[in-house]
Design brief:
Rossmann fold; alpha/beta; 2 domains; elongated; four-stranded antiparallel sheet; 302 residues
């Protein structure tokens, strides 16, 4: 399957600070990608590189096989919603759509009008008087009406209340489905990622630590519960990512394994959720001497 976004040795430095270091990614078409990681991990830098807003220090990035931002036809194929969901406060909702139609050759007026009606946005309302959730919906509508093949969203729901965030994610998935697009969603809200994404990229310290479809990624991780001494006897090919040993109860470990653990009455095995998995990998990456290279081999499912 052709990669929508592909990087090779991608590095971006700002003076002495390295925002991204030797990033290797290959994201296939049709995925809804959750881009996660702590503040300063390089998520926004990666998205700005993908949009052509900045250039790499070294290495390369390709979107639809071309260097981002170098051709008008490339710009038309990428929709971008920044973290602060920028809109023009003195323009009405309808004026945003008319501006979008003039600037984008693939503009879909019918889609834009359906999105406005679905979000219950008044075309006569000035953007500066909209709520945060409404501004996010307007920014998403403008990005989607370009009919992009790649939709990039940088923490678009970060400032929204739970109800507005829920509505925004619903509209996002409707737009992605209607467009048949690939989407990359940067978010600190791991439940949101688990709800709408089917592929995960985890960045920490400017490097990729996880990169795979979510379902097989979770399948390679297991929560093991038993006596502390029994967990010490786990097979040698099991990687323990996180472990708790309470004084008044059984010990629990989150482990990564490429094959199912053998049946053993000494411990119980259950599946972790995505939030537990991500937090364990982030904690491992943050420990002194933590892994500098990916802990799961990046691969493209075919």
């Amino acid at each position: 399957m052709t990669a929508v976004l592909e990087t090779t040795g991608l590095t971006k430095r700002y003076g002495r600070r390295t925002a991204l270091a030797d990033v290797e990614l290959s994201i296939p078409a049709g995925r809804v990608v959750g881009l996660v990681g702590p503040n300063g991990a390089g998520k926004s830098t990666l998205m700005q590189l993908a949009c052509g807003l900045i250039g790499p220090t070294s290495g390369r990035i390709r979107v639809h096989g071309a260097e981002p931002g170098t051709r008008p036809d490339h710009l038309a194929r990428v929709g971008y919603v920044a973290q602060d969901t920028p809109v023009y406060p003195d323009l009405t909702v309808a004026e945003h759509l008319r501006l979008g139609a003039r600037l984008n050759p693939r503009w879909d007026r019918a889609l834009a009008e359906r999105r406005l009606a679905r979000a219950e946005l008044d075309p006569r309302q000035k953007a500066g008087r909209l709520s945060g959730g409404q501004r996010a919906q307007l920014a998403l509508t403008v990005a989607a009406a370009k009919r992009p093949d790649l939709l990039i969203l940088d923490e678009p729901a970060a400032a929204l209340d739970p109800l507005s965030r829920h509505a925004f994610l619903d509209h996002l998935m409707e737009s992605v489905t209607e467009l048949g697009a690939t989407a990359v969603l940067s978010s600190h809200a791991l439940p949101d990622v688990a709800r709408v994404c089917d592929h995960l990229v985890l960045l920490a310290h400017g490097r990729v630590h996880l990169h795979d479809d979510i379902e097989p990624l979770i399948a390679r991780h297991t929560r093991v519960t038993g006596r502390a001494a029994d967990l010490d006897a786990l097979p040698p090919d099991v990687t323990v990512l996180a472990r708790t040993d309470p004084s008044d109860g059984p010990a629990t470990a989150l482990v990564r394994t490429e094959r199912p653990l053998p049946a053993d009455r000494r411990w119980a095995v259950t599946a972790p959720d995505l939030e537990e998995l991500v937090l364990a990998h982030l904690a491992r990456a943050a420990r002194p001497g933590g892994p500098a290279a990916p802990t799961t081999r990046p691969e493209t499912r075919r």
